[in-house]
Structure formats: C-alpha cells, structure tokens
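Our collaborator T.R. sent over the components below with a one-line note: 'Predict the complex.' Nothing else. No constraints on interfaces, no templates requested, no preferences about which chain binds where. So this is a plain run: every listed entity goes in together, and whatever single assembly comes back becomes the starting point for the next discussion.
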Amino acid sequence: MENDAKHNSENLSRRGFAAAAAGAATWILTSCGPKRLYEVPKDRLRTKISELEQRYQQRYHEHINVADTQPMAGVEYAYALDLSRCIGCRRCVYACVAENNQSRDPQIQWIRVLSMEKEKGVDLAHADPYYNPPEVPEEGHFYMPVQCQHCENPPCTKVCPTAATWKERDGIVVIDYDWCIGCRYCMAACPYGARHFNWAEPEIPTAEINPNTHYLGNRPRTKGVVEKCTFCIQRTRTGRYPACEEVCPVGARKFGNLLDAGSEIRYIIEHKRVFVLKEDLNTVPRFFYFYAT
Amino acid sequence: MRLAAFTLIAAAALLRAADGPGTVPAGSASNKPDQERVETPPPPFTDGIFPCSNCHATQPVNRTRRELKDMHTDIDLRHDETHRWCLDCHDATNRDFLHLASGERIPFEESYLLCGQCHGEKLRDWRAGVHGRRTGNWNGTKSYLLCAHCHNPHQPRFHALAPKPAPRPPARPSR
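Returned assembly:
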C-alpha cells in the first residue's frame, strides 16, 4: 500500500515534469523561435526594409523603394490566357524580366513560352521553348506561355522546410527571399517548372533596374534563392495590371478579381471554353487558359 | 358582341395600314442594345488625312465602284473585298463620318459600332474587356483601344511579328 502511494507520487512528478518541458519547448518554438521576417511586427519590418533599401542603394547606386503593400479585402486574383490569340512573340517574357528585376546573366525568365503543334494539341512532351523562326506565328503551331499558376492548393509551399513560401490571402503565392535557404524542394514539387533558382549572383544592368519593388515580389534577389512570378504583386496590389498583361500585342492576357462578378476573369470563366494545366494533379491553378474563338 | 369584334378587327387593320410596309424603325440610337459609349483614344489616322472633308467637300461624289488611281493608292483592301468597297463604311455625303448599314452616321471615334455589325461576338467580348488589349487598372479605369488601333480596317488580319530572342538552353558542364 505504502509502496503504491510512493510509486504514484513519483509518477505524478514525472508527468508534471514532462508537461512543463513540453510547455517550455512550445514557448521556445513559438516566441523565441524562428519567424519569417515578413511576419515580424510592422515597425520592425519597416526598419528591416529601410536597411534593405540602404543595401540596395550601395549595390545599385539608386534608391530602390521596397513596399510591403498588404492584400486588398475581397480580392482573389486570377489570370486567363487566350490560346487562340497568343502568337508566341515573347513580348511578355521580356516585359516581365524588366519589371521584376530578373537576372540577365545567368538568365532567369519567369515566363516560358512553349511552341506546340496544332495537330498534337496541348502536348507538353513535344513542346519546344527554344523555337526561333524569323516570324511568328509559324504555320501549324500554337503557343502556350507558362508561368506560376498560383495554385489554390500549391504543392510547392507544402514542401518548404523553412516556410519561406506561402499563399497570401489574395491568392498570390509568394517567397520571402530572406527566409529561403535554397534547398530547391519547391522546384521539385512544382509541376509547372515555374520556379527558378539563382545559381549565381544575379546580374542586372544598373540602368535597367526597376526601382518600384515589393518585399515579396521584384526586389533584387541574391545568389542561392528561388524566385518566380508573383502576378506583379508590386503593381496589382495597387490596382494596376501586371506587366505581361499590358504588353501583350494581341490582347491574349487577361487579369482580374475572381470575386468580382463584373470582372473580365469571371466573364471568361462563365462564357468561354476554359481549362487549367495539369488539372489531374489537383493543384487548382488560378491561371486559366481559354479559347475566345 | 359581334359589332364589338368587328370594330376591333377594323381598328387593328387601320393600325397596320398606318404602319405601312416601308417604315424605318424609329430612333435607331435609342434601341441599340447595351450601348453605352466607350471612351477610347483618338482613332489612328494617317498624319494629315483627317478631316477628309478638306478635300472631299469640294469634290463631286462618285458612287461607282472602281480602283482608285489618283489618291489613296496605298490602301489595298483585303477585307471581304469581293463584296465591300469604300462607301460601304465611309459616308458618301459627309466624309468625316462613317455610316452603319442602317444609314446612321457615326463618328470615327465610335467605329466599333460599325465593326460590330458583322463581328458582333467580338464587339460583345470587347465591351466585356475580353477581346483586345487592356491597360491601366484591373479595378479602376481601364483604357480601351478602338478596333482600328490593332487591326488595320482595310487589312484586318494581324501581321506576323519577329519573336524576341529564345531563352538560352541550360549550359551542360564539359566532361
């Protein structure tokens, strides 16, 4: 009997200790532990951003404004691309490079335009991104630009060991370049080849740098981080169209708010033949391809 | 009872007679479907060509379909050219205007109404913001372009473009 009581009290204390230890560990992990830089309190983020701006000033000898514009309420972005119009001129690719401060050497391009044969249809196995005829469109070919699909169910964010990439409230999948450790798991997880790695220090001619940047978007990156399309977060969160949308000479690119019943995007989804790329993977892209004619 | 029925029939016949077979539907401007005017930049005229009345006001109107030899020789009509010619779209009596099939005169700034007579589904998509290029703000002022800003009305088919350079294939390490 006495023995039993002793045993019990010993058990209780052991349990108490375990609980206390677990509590302490949780506290350490949540309050002192790592946090994405983007999630630190506002005032600290502003200090961090002004430090960043100073670093960019030294590097590019120009003031680069880094914004942290938040998502708008009641807005979820979506994109639509008219395959019956695209002529494969690659204007969007280079407008994107210029707008989003992508490295010229080594070359990084967030948009990849695939040339496909009309006879085969959408056939990724035989698509050619390196097509280079004197004039486009080529006879018997159509073109399919591919960029980040901003999935509703993104496989890339799930595999990130540091949670450096996530989906924002407005549907934009973003990366915190200061939190990315360059493991490239996300690149392996992305079924669209939309993510790109800075294998070397990115090179942008000083004269061509775009000084209007967003923390989660087109601010200059460093070697060893992953980057991708952000629907031009620095433009779209202030109400503007993305750069690729505005430059398209045939008007094949459409952008808008999925939650606004009067938007172009909703009109397209409700009236046109629409599909998404690799629907079977259940990534639920917010990037729609359609045929207007 | 019978008298009442007769009066009704007579009244209906009278009304129909008053309408007449040749009546033009009244006020075509008022019964256009969802026709709010769309703001567009000025039409893309060739330099110095507008107003057309500078030359045409003093010239007699020649309605015979013919090949133009003296003026506008640069225009090579490839837009259903077997059935169409200048005066199907350009107004003969006032050259500073276009006209619809109904005869209604419209300014060049509203040429989309003219195009939409045949390309109705394109006009519908254009109004919705789906056909054509949009710039500006996705949630605010969007700028529209006229059909003629992208399609030459005399040769509406898009011309081929030279593509921008292809991406560099990834470098293979030398062995």
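Summary for T.R.: The first helix of chain B runs from residue 2 to 19.
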